[in-house]
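User: hey, got a sec? need Epoxide hydrolase 4 folded
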Amino acid sequence: MPGSALSGMLACSRLNWHILNIDSGLRFHYVAAGERGKPLMLLLHGFPEFWYSWRHQLREFKSEYRVVALDLRGYGETDAPSHKEYYKLDCLITDIKDILESLGYNKCVLIGHDWGGMIAWLVAICYPEMVTKLIVVNFPHPSVFTEYILRHPSQLIKSGYYFFFQMPWFPEFMFTVNDFKVLKSLFTSQATGIGRKGCRLTAEDIEAYLYVFSQPGALTGPINHYRNIFSCLPLQHHEVIMPTLLLWGERDAFMEVEMAEITRIYVKNHFRLTILSEASHWLQQDQPDIVNKLIWTFLKEETTRKRE
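Assistant: Yep! Here you go:
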């Protein structure tokens, strides 16, 4: 079991650690809370994160859902194919479909943050029958992202790491320099981290992240996700047809907030956007109580709408 923070978290919160085999032959690690048989809530983390970024939501939603937080392909305890070709968006989308089926479900509430938000949007577009409700945290509709970045140099600069990650081996090396200073600063620095009014990461939280990403080769899989992005965009299909909630931290250092409102164009169903003015990119960790309340409101609101 990885790290004292992780093992303590699992024990105290009655979370269960699982390995799942899917049709591709890959083994996926996930942590689950809530009874089997309840509706499925599937959580997809961003970069550089893993299932632990959803710890507050695992505890919150287990009363009414079977909550499953994955380690995405290449992350944490999940298998990490060595070649970057195995990290194309098509593969990542199919992973989610296969995981859903392997868990014994045919539909879910799908929630994604950051890069996991990108995957969530694409799953909702490609397999709409599998997503009853879509919730995305700090990532716009992929078509908005690709169109906006080409027209706004300021966003191009903020997304410069997408281009930096195209280099072999050097990005991984940079993350390890000076005892993983870059990794720690992403979550804690004034420029990119959780602010003074947020729920800052504890020393134990940082320990959990360092444990996972300091394992041999642990950064290559996550960065390989980005090494294929330019072969998969722009999209051929765009429309999202299920009720959608987009949550956004306005202090996001990587994504300009203007993209959030433009996303409305591509959602052909009920669309709710909430922007939190004091929150960072790491929204579900930064403001967990507010995020959880907004998610509950959206889920119950849509249930009410269906009954009317």
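Quick note: DSSP finds 13 helices and eight strands in the chain. Let me know if you need anything else on Epoxide hydrolase 4.
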